[in-house]
Write a structure and sequence with these properties.
Homodimer. GO terms for molecular function: D-tyrosyl-tRNA(Tyr) deacylase activity; Gly-tRNA(Ala) deacylase activity; Ser(Gly)-tRNA(Ala) hydrolase activity; tRNA binding. One of its GO terms (biological process) is tRNA metabolic process. Its main location: cytoplasm. The protein has 152 residues and is α/β, with parallel strands linked by helices. It has one domain (2-144): 3-Layer(bba) Sandwich (D-tyrosyl-trna(Tyr) Deacylase, Chain: A), CATH 3.50.80. The chain has two helices and eight strands; from the N terminus they run βββαβββαββ. The strands form two sheets. Strands 1, 2, 3, 6, 7 and 8 form a six-stranded mixed beta sheet that branches.
Amino acid sequence: MKAVIQRVSEARVEVDGSTVGAIGRGILVLLGVEKGDTERDAAWLAEKMAGLRIFEDDAGKMNLSVREVEGSILAVSQFTLAGNCAKGRRPSFDTAAPPDEGKRLYDRFVDLIRETGIPTATGIFQADMKVHLVNDGPVTFILDTKSRSSST
């Protein structure tokens, strides 16, 4: 799984002109599921999202998690994160999980986040979505479950 995470002061996702998910302060997660990803990847990523200290404390250091600042998470599926632009001019999506598997693991990731008690909003899987955000910082990170160490 690949995730682009952004610390936001607010974010929302629209489908057909209607807001389907919105948060205030928190994390926007753009999530791409690849072939070979498992529930273990979803669990690792959900745990990482809940505990990642990317919010500033009183001293101005990134030392607080989304839970500690009583923030929320907006999770948006984005299969294009599995795209490969190394050859030619058009991306290849050969490594993207099939839609049914991608949806199953995306839904599992969302369920695991919700189980932590962090308020979580979502987009709609496979919909044409418009994502609006105010990136706070800006603070943006890229996580790939394939590059995690065995100790995390």
